[in-house]
């Protein structure tokens, strides 16, 4: 059975190289704060957004400072420009978030260019919206280990998903899993992503994150990724799961598609999803 439970990175290369030990001083107190852009354009209404913040200093704690006075626009390859407005509902929890008008949706085959202006500094990125395969179905099964010794009483079910992956093109995917509208990870640093070479043409019995109780609502989302986005998530996964050992590479910011030294990523994705209510197998 294939599993995404431990699918944190697909290409982990361990290079055991003996070298002389060298001490490198790091002036962490002088680290310059950078603009952080987390942005998504997708083909579903209400799912596109741009989140702007600033990186913290090395020893700073607490929430990252949000940027609330930026000019944010997305231009399509057809020449249409969409203005993203900061927090139109004035919800304090959404400070730093910018949204387009309600009926904006991305279109497969078009390219999108993000343009963010913060205090006169301009940050840009361009991505193409690639197609995503369709999730055929979800299936519930009893997990024998959880049945014997569940971490949460009654939470004894695993969920599998099925799809057909077209082999006439190169595809990369990001997966998100939800239980009752809450995103679900087996481990806090997990990122679930893959390419079509690993998944194969027939995606059968792929076990998603977490365990479920009868009556839980399960949601699986599958996003298309460009090759650049796939590399970003691979870098991010390696950074989050770097154990700091002698053979681990030094920490480095993930490679991204943003100009002017900004951190984060402008992701443009088609998304497919499937939902179900958990019922015992056979019901």
In a nutshell, what does this entry contain?
Residues 5-30 have low confidence and may be disordered. The chain has helices at 144-148, 196-199, 227-240; strands at 35-42, 49-54, 71-76, 81-86, 97-99, 111-118, 121-128, 135-142, 157-164, 172-179, 182-183, 192-195, 202-207, 217-225, 263-269, 271-277. It is globular, with a radius of gyration of 21 Å.
Read across the widest sheet, the strand sequence of neighbours is 7-6-3-4-5-2-1-15
Helix vs. strand class: mainly beta
- Which stretches of 5+ consecutive residues score pLDDT under 50? 5-30
How many β-strands, per DSSP?
16
Strand and helix order: EEEEEEEEHEEEEHEEHEE
Mean pLDDT: 85
Helix content: under 10%
**Form type:** globular
Can you offer a commentary on this structure?
By secondary structure, this protein is mainly β. It is 8% helix and 37% strand. The strands form three sheets. Strands 7-6-3-4-5-2-1-15 form an eight-stranded mixed β-sheet, with no helix packed on it. Strands 10, 11, 12, 14 and 16 form a five-stranded antiparallel β-sheet that branches. Strand 1 (35-42) and strand 2 (49-54) form a beta hairpin. The protein is globular, with a radius of gyration of 21 Å. The model is unreliable at 5-30 (pLDDT under 50).
């Amino acid at each position: 059975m294939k599993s995404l439970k431990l699918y944190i990175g697909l290409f982990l290369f361990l290079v055991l190289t003996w070298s002389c030990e060298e001490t490198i001083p790091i002036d962490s107190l002088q680290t310059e704060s950078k603009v952080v852009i987390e942005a998504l354009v997708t083909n579903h209404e209400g799912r596109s957004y741009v989140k702007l913040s600033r990186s913290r200093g090395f020893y700073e704690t607490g929430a990252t400072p949000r940027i609330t006075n930026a000019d944010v626009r997305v231009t399509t390859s057809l020449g249409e420009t969409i203005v993203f407005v900061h927090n139109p509902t004035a919800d304090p929890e959404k400070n730093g978030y910018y949204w387009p008008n309600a009926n904006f949706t991305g279109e497969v085959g078009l390219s999108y260019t993000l343009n963010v202006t913060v205090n006169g500094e301009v940050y840009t990125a361009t991505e193409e919206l690639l197609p995503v395969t369709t999730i055929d179905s979800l299936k519930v099964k009893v997990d024998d280990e959880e049945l014997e010794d569940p971490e949460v009483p009654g939470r004894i079910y695993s969920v599998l998903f099925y799809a057909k992956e077209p082999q006439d093109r190169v595809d990369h995917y990001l997966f998100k899993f939800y239980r009752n509208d809450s995103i679900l990870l087996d481990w806090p640093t997990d990122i679930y992503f893959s390419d079509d070479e690993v998944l194969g043409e027939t995606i059968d019995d792929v076990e998603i994150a977490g365990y479920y109780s009868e009556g839980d609502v399960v949601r699986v989302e599958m996003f298309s990724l460009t090759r650049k986005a796939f590399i970003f998530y691979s870098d991010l996964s390696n950074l989050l799961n770097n154990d700091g050992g002698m053979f681990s590479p030094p920490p480095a910011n993930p490679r991204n598609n943003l100009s002017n030294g900004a951190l984060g990523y402008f992701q443009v994705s088609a998304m497919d999803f499937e939902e179900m209510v958990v019922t015992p197998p056979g019901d």
